[in-house]
Write a structure and sequence with these properties.
There is one protein chain. The chain is of the alpha+beta class and 119 residues long. The protein has a single domain, classed as GIY-YIG endonuclease (3-Layer(aba) Sandwich), CATH 3.40.1440. 26% of the residues lie in helices and 26% in strands. It is built from 3 helices and 5 strands; from the N terminus they run ββββαβαα. It has a 5-stranded mixed β-sheet with strand order 2-1-5-3-4. The longest helix has 11 residues.
C-alpha cells in the first residue's frame, strides 16, 4: 500500500499537530510496536466502484486496508476496490474512535469534503 502524499495528522489530548510529510522521519520504517507504543489510525477510504467514502479506525493501517480490498470487511466488501484518501495517526485508541465518530457527523463530513476538495 502506498501511503505517501496522504494527509497525516497526529492527534493527542490537546488537539492536532500537522506533520510535514506523509510519514515523519522519526516514524519512517518503524512499526508502532517498535516505537514502544501503539499508534491508532482514523482513516477514510474512497470506493472506486461507487465513489462513496468509508471511515474507520485501526491500529494497523496497511493490514486493515488490505482486508478491505480483499473483501474481508462486511461494510465494504461490495464496494471494492478502495483507495486510501485520508488518515490521521492518534496517540490512543479512544482518540481514534472519537475522531472516527466526529468524521461521521455532518461537521466531520464537511471537514472531509473541504480537506479533500470534494465539494
Amino acid at each position: 500500500m502506498n501511503i505517501k502524499n496522504k494527509t497525516f495528522l497526529v492527534t493527542g489530548g490537546a488537539g492536532f499537530t500537522r506533520l510535514p510529510s506523509a510519514e515523519p522521519k522519526a516514524m519512517a520504517g518503524r512499526s508502532a510496536r517498535t516505537r514502544g507504543g501503539n499508534m491508532f489510525y482514523t482513516y477514510v477510504l474512497k470506493s472506486k466502484a461507487d465513489g462513496d467514502l468509508y471511515t474507520g479506525w485501526t491500529d494497523n493501517l496497511e493490514d486493515r486496508i488490505k482486508k478491505h480490498n480483499k473483501g474481508l470487511v462486511t461494510a465494504t466488501k461490495y464496494r471494492v476496490p478502495l483507495e486510501l484518501v485520508y488518515y490521521e495517526a492518534c496517540l490512543g485508541r479512544e482518540l481514534a474512535i472519537a475522531r472516527e465518530k466526529y468524521l461521521k457527523t455532518g461537521f466531520g463530513r464537511n471537514f472531509l469534503n473541504q480537506r479533500l476538495g470534494l465539494k
